[in-house]
Design brief:
Structural class: alpha/beta
Strand order of the largest sheet: 2-1-3-8-7-4-5-6
CATH architecture: 3-Layer(aba) Sandwich
Radius of gyration: 17 Å
Distance between the termini: 29 Å
Oligomer: single chain
Strand content: 15-25%
Helix content: 25-40%
CATH superfamily: Ureohydrolase domain
Order of helices and strands: EHEHEHEHEHEEHEH
Number of strands: 8
Largest sheet: 8 strands, parallel
Shape: globular
CATH topology: Arginase, Chain A
CATH class: Alpha Beta
Number of domains: 1
Length: 281
């Protein structure tokens, strides 16, 4: 059973769903290790109701308080341009129904086409980005669509009114210059000494790269960056967030490095608590 703690309803019985799981098994833009394409499968597998229930910590029961469906995976068998177009189309369709997409990556490059779809519906749009890396390279090894570049493209295209980055700890001078130029609020890991209470005024998209977590809590990522958030700290950020959350992606789960399933379990925890936060702001 891969049912998100029992919350997933049959699609044919739930045409007016409120939350939609969408998998994007894609890692062709990874710069180091491949494996993130296995992320959607790993998260679904760990989510079984044989192990987890649908109740969130804030008292939302995802089985009864909302309608969640799983729309399966985007076809990623074509070239990256085709895949990115299909990602946009799939997210557009969910948003057209008035539902909230929960996207399972995949490497972080997929966030760019996802946000393209969101920016057409939500103007202005804010983004909360949790990551060990700012992903603000203009290009990496000549690739402007690398998983190290999505937020450079998002800012370049004017797709977000505000970008807040939390937990970053692999920051270059070039990243800082671009952040300053574009008005990005960068909350570096070295400066996080107390719980964070973030407030957003516009509809807010959450992009969660699992390497924001310390490798002790999330070893199943391609880029181990020690000194990160604990899973509890990450959950606290989500639970305390003030504003309307309109979408989520969870990316960069490399199942080949997640031998005990700890990272997949952390990913499911983040999804569950964010879904509860969406259902009951």
């Amino acid at each position: 059973m891969t049912d998100f703690g029992g919350a997933i309803k049959p699609l044919d019985e739930s045409p007016d769903y409120k939350l939609a799981i969408l998998g994007v098994p894609f890692d062709e833009k990874s710069s180091y290790l491949r494996g993130a394409a296995g992320g959607p499968r790993a998260i679904r597998t760990v989510s079984t109701s044989k192990c987890y229930c649908g109740w969130t910590e804030l008292g939302v029961n995802l089985e009864t308080d909302t309608v969640m469906v799983d729309l399966g995976d985007v076809d990623t068998s074509g070239d990256p341009d085709k895949t990115f177009g299909l990602i946009e189309k799939a997210v557009d369709a969910i948003l057209a129904k008035g539902a909230v997409p929960i996207v399972l990556g995949g490497d972080h490059s997929i966030t760019y086409p996802v946000i393209k779809a969101f920016a057409r519906k939500f103007k202005p749009l804010d983004i909360l980005h949790l990551d060990a890396h700012p992903d603000l390279y203009d290009d990496l090894y000549g690739d402007r669509l690398s998983h190290a570049c999505p937020f450079a493209r998002i800012l370049e295209d004017g797709l977000a009114a505000n970008l807040v980055q939390v937990g970053v700890r692999a920051v270059t001078d070039a990243h800082r210059r671009l952040a300053l130029k574009r008005g990005v609020r960068m909350i570096e890991m070295k400066d996080i000494t107390e719980p964070l209470f973030l407030k957003f005024t516009n509809p807010t998209y959450v992009s969660f790269d699992l390497d924001v977590l310390d490798p002790a809590f999330a070893p199943g990522v391609s880029h181990h960056e020690p000194g990160g958030l604990t899973t509890r700290q990450a959950v606290q950020v989500i639970q305390a967030l003030k504003g309307q959350v309109v979408g989520l992606d969870v990316v960069e789960l490399n199942a080949a490095r997640d031998l005990q399933g700890l990272t997949a379990a952390a990913a499911f925890k983040i999804i569950k608590e964010t879904a509860g936060r969406i259902v009951r702001p």
